[in-house]
Amino acid sequence: MWTNSARTKMHEIRLHAIVNNRKYPKLKEVDDVLGGAAAWENVDSTAETCPKCEHRRAFFMQIQTRSADEPMTTFYKCCNAQCGHRWRD
């Protein structure tokens, strides 16, 4: 059996003010992660329907976003210039 023979002193600390200082990191935009607007210049298009405007063609690119044993993530951008909606599969 272990015993603690050392005496401990009790300290009292009084708080004069509560400081609430939160900093939130800047979130990356999707363009930053995917390489910006230039990344979409030379990509292929496919017969994928846009979920926003129902246009029947979309640009696509595939990027490995998870571990190597997982499938690649496909990112789409609507071919309709007025829409330009982006989504992933």
Helix and strand topology:
Blueprint: H1 30-34, E1 44-46, E2 58-63, E3 73-78, E4 86-88
Antiparallel strand pairs: 1-2, 2-3, 3-4
Organism: Takifugu rubripes (Japanese pufferfish)
Domain TFIIS-type: 46-88
Protein name: DNA-directed RNA polymerase III subunit RPC10
Describe the structure.
By secondary structure, the protein is mostly beta strands. The chain has a domain of 59 residues: Single Sheet (N-terminal domain of TfIIb). It has 1 helix and 4 strands; from the N terminus they run αββββ. Strand 3 and strand 4 form a beta hairpin. It is elongated, with a radius of gyration of 27 Å. It starts with 29 loop residues before the first helix and ends with a strand. The relative contact order is 0.16.
Morphology: elongated
Beta-strand percentage range: 15-25%
Please state the second-level CATH architecture of the domain at 30-88: Single Sheet
Taking all Cα atoms into account, the compactness measure Rg is 27 Å
Query: Secondary-structure element order, as H and E?
Result: HEEEE
User: How much helix is in the residues?
Assistant: under 10%
| Quaternary organisation of the protein chains | single chain
SS elements, strand count: 4
How many helices?
Answer: 1
The profile of the biggest β sheet is: 4 strands, antiparallel
Mean pLDDT level: 80
CATH class descriptor name of the domain at 30-88: Mainly Beta
CATH topology of the domain at 30-88: N-terminal domain of TfIIb
Enumerate the spans where pLDDT stays under 50 for 5 or more consecutive residues. none
Which strand order does the major sheet show? 1-2-3-4
